[in-house]
């Protein structure tokens, strides 16, 4: 299948997709990034990372000003110049208060309870990156320390506060109910269609269970081979529009674009 680069939009997960799971490099994808830029194909980052983490990364990728989805869909940023937040939002502080009350019933810890150094230690991020990952606006990252079977009860307790639980690559994410990567993508698709007067064909790439709603929503989906124990099984019947890669990380990312788009010259 060969999709045209005209009126295309790429939506991508970061960790384990565009970025290597271990060292966060994207070398294997760089030829494609250059080509997408030449053809003015919007590259929409769709990640569990915060806006404070994504904005500097967009700069390094050369896509400053593109719309993006942060915090697993809890935060949607439409196009335009953005300034990275310098402190956690009030909504996030309120969310942490709710979680604090739930800690009398469940054993878990949120990112807000740790220092930058602690977060750096258990994520492998640098100190500066850990600090950016803690500048949260709409969701909390949770380290579950209770039994696995208690997760269902935790979900129910969260639902009473209009909150939902999503599994990320490494941690759990507590976010407002009704938000997620799929709904966030829909919002961006509508925004772009409105701005340009017509909808773009979307090609989504992701490797984890939290990418499923985004991969279901995209016109074409690349399921990148991942490290997660939970398989990424899509429910869509148009299997010809879904491609599973043999490679992991940015190599799989390139493989997916090679499959759906005309190969680079
Ligand atoms: Mg991932």
TrEMBL record:
Keyword set includes Hydrolase: yes
Keywords of the record: Hydrolase, Magnesium, Metal-binding
Coiled coil (residue ranges): none
One GO MF term: mannosyl-3-phosphoglycerate phosphatase activity
Gene3D superfamilies from the UniProt entry: HAD superfamily/HAD-like, Putative mannosyl-3-phosphoglycerate phosphatase, domain 2
InterPro entries, alphabetized: HAD-like_sf, HAD-SF-IIB-MPGP, HAD-SF_hydro_IIB, HAD_sf
GO biological process, one term: mannosylglycerate biosynthetic process
ATP-binding listed as a keyword: no
Domain of life: Bacteria
Pfam families the UniProt entry points to: Hydrolase_3
A GO cellular component entry from the record: cytosol
NCBIfam families tied to this protein: HAD-SF-IIB (TIGR01484), HAD-SF-IIB-MPGP (TIGR01486), PRK03669.1 (NF002976)
This protein's name: Mannosyl-3-phosphoglycerate phosphatase
Lineage: Bacteria, Pseudomonadati, Pseudomonadota, Gammaproteobacteria, Enterobacterales
